[in-house]
Amino acid sequence: MIYAGAPVFGASHVRRFLPVFAVTCIVLLLISSAGSFGDGSTEMSYKSTLATGHFPKKIWQTWKVDPLGFEARDLTTAKTWTAKNPDYRYEVLTDQNDLHYVETHFGPSGFNRVDIVRVYRSLQLKIIKADLLRYLVMYVEGGVYTDIDVEALKPIPRFIPDRYDERSLDMVIGIEIDQPEFNNHSILGQKSQSFCQWTFMSKPRLPVMMMLINDIVKWLNAVAREQKVPISEIQLGFDEVISGTGPSAFTKAILDHMSMKAERPVTWLDNFHNLGESRLVGDVLVLTVEAFAAGQGHSDSGNHNAKTALVKHHYHASGWPAMHPRYNHPVYGEVEKCNWDAECVRQWDANKAAFDALPPDEQIKQIAMKENSDANKKPGL
């Protein structure tokens, strides 16, 4: 029995509404997919790494603007990465979209590390944000991170020599500074032996990267307490940046990780000083200084024409020390200008010691003489 008022659908009605129903389902599916695409693609990449043991084929850079707004020199350098690695994805996080990335992956719907989000959101020092962001990105997705002013000289597969099995590696890094003879120097010591973090490769979700991130968050909170200001107002000098988030912090985290895996101290002198060829320590492949840091004029870094030179750092985006100055002696200037030359550093130390031994009035005279000398050297005078 058919009740009065009840709709009756015959075969013709069904055929009429099927296309509308199908289109509606497709639209809803696309909307649903679009809403979860970011996280879904990240998880798919992570699962692929777990399944295959290969590094994600992704190149990461961070900069003020997206590639469509790059200056000519930045665009030229960036193109070397995509030209030499056409099968790799390429992404730039900018000053406009970086916070969204951090909130998405470390907020309540991601890893639920609201402490990390809070610190990142508060930071105003651009170099600290840039350092922290690269570690966050590499923890989440892995791949290759490289600074905007680094040129690719060789394809990324050349990062791993043929004798190594990619599946047994978690990170590929290179030496930046290898001058351990200055390890006890009051200024140069903490910078005298370090790994390069302007270019490195890693797999996602590595404990060593999260250990580094946690150390940075803890350090920033401690600095804010010590300076009695919020994180948004902290001030840092050059060496504090290097040791807090830069190469020294990166190096310490990796050495600690190596030592933990080896169940013994892994020291620089025993493992990486005068490294003549790449070395695997646990799951970290360490390349020679020539790989990522050739042509520095120190650390036996060789030159960019060498077969083992993989990248070239142009340093045109390295203006941050202007906001975080090095120690600058009023008479003898920066010891870093010695560029790790032993005799130059020895003379600088001797001059500083002699200056410190002078009476205050004589120190004032020396400073005045230096200022007058500098003024006379200015163009047009």
TrEMBL record:
Belongs to the glycosyltransferase 32 family. GO terms for cellular component: mannan polymerase complex. SUPFAM superfamilies: Nucleotide-diphospho-sugar transferases (SSF53448). PANTHER family: INITIATION-SPECIFIC ALPHA-1,6-MANNOSYLTRANSFERASE (PTHR31834), TRANSFERASE, PUTATIVE (AFU_ORTHOLOGUE AFUA_6G14040)-RELATED (PTHR31834:SF8). GO terms for molecular function: alpha-1,6-mannosyltransferase activity. GO terms for biological process: protein N-linked glycosylation. This is Glycosyl transferase. InterPro entries: GlycoTrfase_DXD_sugar-bd_CS, Nucleotide-diphossugar_trans, Och1-like. Pfam families: Gly_transf_sug. Signal peptide: none annotated. It comes from Exophiala mesophila.
